[in-house]
Amino acid sequence: MTVKFSITVNGKPVEGETEDRTLLVQYLREDMRLTGTHVGCDTSQCGCCTVHIDGKPVKSCTILCAQVDGCEITTIEGLAKDGELHPMQNAFRENHALQCGFCTPGMVMSAIGIVDRHKDESLDEKTVRHELEGNICRCTGYHNIVKAILAASVTMNKNA
Amino acid sequence: MYEFTYQKASSLDEAKEAYGASDEAKYMSGGMTLLPTLKQRLARPSHVIDLGGVNDMSGVVIENDKVTILARTPHAQVASNIELQRVLPALAKLAGGIGDPMVRNRGTIGGSTANSDPAADYPASIVGLGATVHTDRRQISGDDFFLDLFETALEEGEIITKVTYPIPDRAGYMKFPNPASRYCIVGVMVSQRGTTVRVGVTGAGACAFRVPEMEEKLACEFSPNAVADIKVPAEDLNEDIHASAEYRAHLVTVMAKRAVAEAIS
Description:
The structure holds 2 protein chains of 2 kinds. By secondary structure, chain A is an alpha+beta fold.
């Protein structure tokens, strides 16, 4: 069985048809070739597959494509505008917040969610570490990731 | 995943009709338990009926002496409800400790309750706060709801619509999470309302259960010490690579003590 759906991916409308059981991450990677969204654990623990659905971070390995009919999806590819990195991407670069880079797209998407949830207050390290619990990094020890998120929260709130 | 037919229902009637018309259907709310189960091929429904399109099933309502959480309310919304944080902080804390922020954006109280996953958080609150589970056809007392591993009092095709909690005088929730999945190895909700004390345990057994011995002691003296020497029997408790039954039995006492300490703090 197949199912038809219309979604917006990184600002572009997409009319699609796929198997009922297709996961969002499969569709993004295999049909749309948006391979920036990674699959790490495939059991909703590592967070590599995090994308935004209607502005909220969600693990795209644990949601069916059919479920997101009518939704707006943002992937890591949709963050940079006109060749300018998103402040969070920039902060990751400046703080050397990655080594192998496999978890990075999910980290960045999740990190933007953290800053969004704490718009009205200044973020502290404890909150960032706590709310990063859904993303696993096997290289960095998290220190520079946390630094990057704190740095980006300042720039993002200034720009908002 | 095995193949299935996906259907999105826009009303409860439509969902029930779709359920009745298929051989082996499963309802899906947020999908945070069902989809991992399907991915592991532990279930093979013919149809997955998505309740995500049903309107007016999400929200937290606080009245004089009770809290109502509609079935499709995501954990993130329960956790961040400022009014709930004031009247029943233990429940807001429980919701805020489920999974991680991404899981909390999708997972719902109805789905968590209906699944009766032995390691889920919400069942501890249903039993430990004396909640009532409302469905499309009746009300079920929290004490009668969880029957066994992934088994509840829900009948074929029955849908949870909301859960109501009486507001206790004080309550506390503590869990020992699996560090990767954040599922409970053991979680304990303790509450006191008038002379009634409840101790609801999740993670330790096949499904959530109460500990009457702890409740009796706490009714006389509501302090962590009152439960310090009470140990639930390890036989019949869950055992896996993360924790032995003996260790889980020990954790029930430790978490109960901490939950009481939190309730009186």
